[in-house]
Amino acid sequence: MSAIGAIMEHNRAFVQEKRYTAFETTKFPDKKLVILTCMDTRLLELLPQAMGLRNGDAKVIKNAGAVVSHPFGSIMRSILLAIYELKAEEVCVIGHHECGMANLESANVLESAKRYGIPEENIRTLTYAGIDLDGWLTGFKKIEESVANSVNMIRSHPLFPATVPVHGLVIHPSTGQLDLVVDGLEVLAKEQSAEALI
């Protein structure tokens, strides 16, 4: 049976037996938290458990590497909507050790695309159109630096409120240990004391 076949079969039983009642909540995050994290399969259940989160506690956004790569892309839009429309009051960017985006090189991704049948002509067309495939498909060297960079991208956005803390963390995908890279409350306190001196 295919994955989608198994999913649909499970879903019929899930709904019929009303197992969904254990997960009932509202669209507003109870802990007023929005999390940007990686799509790594090891984090699906580990991350919420390691953070003490239950269904309904946080808005969770996932992508490859927990990276904000463009200030006006869908990741940043989702973060802003979580704050302005869904009552989130803190942001956490959570990367992880052993991430597939670490040391990722565009040449390897493009070679894999060709093996899947993407013609070389498509790649050339994108390059000639000014698309920086190397930059777009290249990962990062150090997870801590990548997390700090994403925190800075969020905080520097012209529509991001200066009063909302943005934390940066790294989780170990085996143990769930969280290491704090950027303490958003500490950053806000420093900014407020600097403003008081002016």
Describe this structure in words.
The protein is an alpha/beta fold. It folds into two domains: 3-102 and 142-186, Carbonic anhydrase (Beta-carbonic Anhydrase, Chain A), CATH 3.40.1050; 105-138, no CATH class. Helices cover 42% and strands 15% of the residues. The protein has eight helices and five strands; from the N terminus they run H-E-H-E-H-E-H-H-H-H-E-E-H. It has helices spanning 3-16, 43-51, 74-84, 106-115, 120-128, 133-136, 143-155, 184-197, and strands at 33-38, 58-63, 90-96, 166-171, 178-182. A five-stranded mixed sheet has the order 2-1-3-4-5, sandwiched between helices. It is globular, with a radius of gyration of 20 Å. The mean pLDDT is 96. One of its GO terms (molecular function) is zinc ion binding.
Write the layout of secondary structure elements.
Elements: H1 3-16, E1 33-38, H2 43-51, E2 58-63, H3 74-84, E3 90-96, H4 106-115, H5 120-128, H6 133-136, H7 143-155, E4 166-171, E5 178-182, H8 184-197
Properties at a glance:
single chain, alpha/beta, five-stranded mixed sheet, 5 strands, globular
Gross geometry: globular
Instruction: Kindly identify the CATH topology of the largest domain.
Output: Beta-carbonic Anhydrase, Chain A
Radius of gyration: 20 Å
**Uncertain residue segments:** none
CATH architecture grouping of the largest domain? 3-Layer(aba) Sandwich
- Report the major sheet: 5 strands, mixed
The arrangement of helices and strands along the chain is HEHEHEHHHHEEH
In CATH, what is the class of the largest domain? Alpha Beta
Summed up, the helix count is: 8
Query: How large is the share of residues in beta strands?
Result: 15-25%
Number of domains: 2
Q: Tell me the span between the first and last alpha carbons.
A: 67 Å
Question: Mean pLDDT, rounded to whole units?
Answer: 96
Strand order of the largest sheet: 2-1-3-4-5
**Percent helix range:** 40-55%
Q: What's the CATH H-level homologous superfamily of the largest domain?
A: Carbonic anhydrase
InterPro entries: Carbonic_anhydrase, Carbonic_anhydrase_sf
Binding site for Zn(2+): 38, 40, 96, 99
Keywords: Metal-binding, Zinc
Protein name: carbonic anhydrase
